Amino acid sequence: MKLTADIWVSAYLTRLRLQDIPAFVVKRGDGTAGAVLVKLNTLDGQARCYQRSFDLMSGERKWIVLTEGDEGEVDASITKQRSFDPDLWVIEVEDRAGRHLLDEPGLS
After folding, report:
1. Which of 1, 16, 23, 66 is the most buried (most CB within 10 A)?
2. How wide is the angle at C-alpha 74 spanned by C-alphas 71 and 79, nearest 5°?
3. pLDDT tens-digit series, residues 56-96
4. In whole angstroms, what is the distance from residue 33 CA to residue 5 CA?
């Protein structure tokens, strides 16, 4: 059974909150099938945006870096992605240490 996007986002935000990592939904997408982008803001003018990808060779889902660098450039890339996909979710995580928890079990 596949989780809906809104349930996954809620669970992810809870995990972050339990680790005292600030995060918020910038753009709410389709509740059932919307794709999710996670922007990691390290609060030093730099950012990284992650998207979930499907590996055709292994069949597993994993988070990959869509774009990284100056926060303004990352924001522009996210805006461009949103223009292609109105159902897209965007979550912003703010952590100076660069923690995002996407590599933890259960979040792929």
Report:
1. 23
2. 125
3. 888 788 899 999 999 999 999 999 999 999 999 999 999 99
4. 6
Query: Which residue, 106, 96, 94, is CA-closest to 16?
Result: 94
**CATH code, domain carrying 48:** 3.40.1530.20
SS3 category, 33: coil
Mean pLDDT, all residues of the chain: 93
Q: Is residue 102 part of a domain?
A: no
The residues near 12 (Cβ < 8 Å, ≥ 6 apart) are: 23, 38, 91, 101, 107
Q: Is 13 within a domain? A: yes
> Which domain does 28 fall in, by range?
5-94
Q: Per the structure, how many domains does the chain have?
A: 1
| Locus of tokens 């450039």 | 73
Whether 99 is in a domain gets the answer no
